[in-house]
Specification:
The structure is a single chain. The chain has 252 residues and is mainly alpha-helical. Helix content is 72%, strand content 3%. A two-stranded antiparallel ribbon has the order 1-2. Helix 6 (130-148) runs antiparallel to helix 9 (198-214). It is elongated and about 65 Å long. The protein starts with a helix and ends with a helix.
């Protein structure tokens, strides 16, 4: 028997209400990320709804990252995750490759603005300590050593950017940087090859580090802008090629 439109709407509304009730229960119970959730039976009893309603609501909440369901273990309050964000941007980044890289350009702009703002906040607050400076020094030196042998170290590059903002004490920054890193690495094959040598890349990181050590905000901003110049250039070359191909088709 088919469900009538009004019945389907009522069902959807009920599931949404159960979702909101479960979230409210988490708040009122003082549960934190990683804490175990009440069982299905306990939720049914507490909310006065059926098992199907609880299960449907929990599936949606799991998809949103609000809860985690571990088969055979139980249900838990979710941690902050950007997995869905990364998958969407990666998909649309590849899709936009067919007619230019607008989506990827937009993602790059957000990452650049994020890092410029974080770097300025870091230097304004003066919160970076000698141990963190030493870590950045070690990473840069290792990057330069690898570059001297013609090797580009993506992992050291990533570690440098993460270490740069540790003292700000914001764990979401790490997640965002990981997200942007994952997106660009996964789409690297759609871009033109870099014109930078491994040593060019290493020296750009050295310039950022020296600006941080000086506490020089203007120098740091210029160094970070220069660091992003190559990827901007690579994206522009792709977009130019796509534009030329589109014009050739239009002329035929």
């Amino acid at each position: 028997m088919k469900t009538s439109p009004s019945g389907l709407l009522g069902r959807n509304s009920l599931v949404r209400d159960v979702q909101e009730s479960i979230k409210q229960l988490i708040f009122e119970s003082g549960l934190l990320p990683g804490d175990p959730m009440p069982t299905e039976f306990e939720l049914m009893s507490e909310l006065g709804v059926s098992r199907n309603s609880v299960r449907e609501a929990m599936k949606v909440l799991e998809a949103l990252g609000i809860v985690v369901i571990k088969r055979g273990t139980g249900m838990f309050v979710g941690e902050i995750t950007l997995d869905g964000f990364v998958e969407q941007l990666e998909f649309h980044g590849r899709l936009s490759h067919l007619n230019g890289h607008d989506n990827l350009n937009n993602v790059l702009q957000i990452r650049e603005l994020l890092e410029m703002g974080l770097l300025d906040q870091l230097l304004t607050s003066g919160s970076i300590d000698p141990q963190e400076i030493q870590l950045l020094e070690d990473l840069t030196t290792r990057m330069e050593a690898a570059a001297a042998h013609g090797e580009k170290s993506t992992s050291l590059d990533s570690e440098f950017h993460h270490a740069l903002y540790v003292s700000l004490g914001n764990p979401i920054v790490t997640k965002l940087l990981n997200a942007f890193w994952t997106i660009f690495n996964s789409l690297a094959d759609t871009l033109r090859p870099t014109t930078e040598t491994p040593m060019d890349i290493a020296l750009k990181h050295r310039e950022i580090l020296e600006a941080v050590k000086e506490g020089n905000r203007e120098r740091a901003a210029a160094a970070m802008t220069d660091h992003f110049a190559d990827i901007h250039h690579r994206l522009a070359r792709v977009d130019l090629a796509v534009g030329e191909a589109t014009n050739r088709k239009a002329e035929k």
